[in-house]
Amino acid sequence: MNWQRALVAASVAVPVLVLLRIGLELDPRAIPSPLPGRPAPGFALATLEDDVGGAVGREGAGAPASGRAPDTVRLSTLRGDVVVLNFWASWCLACRDEHEPLSATARAYADESVRFFGVLYNDTPDNARRWIRAMGGQSYPTLLDPDARTAIEYGLYGVPETFFIARDGRVAYKHVGPVTEALLVERIETLLVAPQPPGGP
Amino acid sequence: MSGAGAAARKARAARSRRRRVVRLALLALTGLISAPAAAQDTPPDLEARTRLVASQLRCPVCQGLSIQDSPSELAQEMKQVVRAQLAAGRTPDEVKAYFVARYGEWILLEPEPRGFNLAVYLLPVLALLAGLAVVGVVVRRWTRSGDVAQA
Question: Among candidates A153, A83, A82, A77, which has minimal Cα distance to A118?
Answer without folding.
Answer: A83
